[in-house]
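Now for a typical sample entry:
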Amino acid sequence: MSTTDCGPGKRQTLKKAEHPEVEEALYMWFLQERNRHAQI
């Protein structure tokens, strides 16, 4: 089986963020909280 095979429910599509600056800020916050071992 090849790693490029995609079965039903295995494909993910990435859509462009409507607000990339908000997405970036949220991701940075998430990383900070994860480093503090905080539950989210």
